[in-house]
Amino acid sequence: MDIPYGLTMRGLLKQNDKILILKRHPNSKTNPNRWELPGGKVDPGEDFDDALIREFVEETNLNIKIGDLVGAVQENFSYKRTVALVMHVEIISGEIAISDEHIDWKWAYMNEIKDLDVSGWFKKLLIEKNYEL
User: Fold this and answer.
1) What stretches of the chain show up as alpha helix (H) in DSSP?
2) Checking phi first, is residue 81 left (phi over 0); if not, alpha (psi -120 to 50) or beta?
3) CA–CA separation, 83 vs 106, rounded Å?
4) Would residue 47 be called left, alpha or beta, if left means φ above 0 and alpha means ψ between -120 and 50 degrees?
5) CB atoms within 10 A of CB 59
6) pTM assigned to the model
7) Bridge partner list, 76
8) pLDDT digits over 20-75, tens only?
9) How many CB atoms within 10 Å of residue 116?
C-alpha cells in the first residue's frame, strides 16, 4: 500500500528580524518537543489559504494576512508523507496565546533557531534556504 500524502500550511511571521516559533507538545505524534512555525493540516475540501488562517488563529490567537510563498518541503513518516507549504504572513490583529498543541513560544533570531531542536520539515527548509528566511 502506498503511503498517503498530507498537506500542511505554515506561516513565517517576522518582526524586527525575529521569527515567531512554537514548541510542540511532548505528546505530539510528530516532532514532539521540537520547535516549528505556526500552522497545520489542510482539511479535506478546505482552501489552503483558509487553512493557514484558521490554524494560525487556533495555535497563536493571531489574525493574519498571507503574503508570498517562502518554500515547500516534504517530511516522511512511517504512516504518511507531509508536504508543508510555508508562506510569509503578517499580523492583522490579536495577542499571542498558544493552544494545547504547543508548550512554549518565542520570537527568535535565525542564529538562535540554528541551535534549537526543530521539526524535520523546518530543518529541511532552513537548509534549503541556507538559513536565510
Assistant:
1) 48-60, 110-113, 120-128
2) beta
3) 24
4) beta
5) 23
6) 0.93
7) 81
8) 999 999 999 889 999 999 999 999 999 999 999 999 999 999 999 999 999 999 99
9) 15
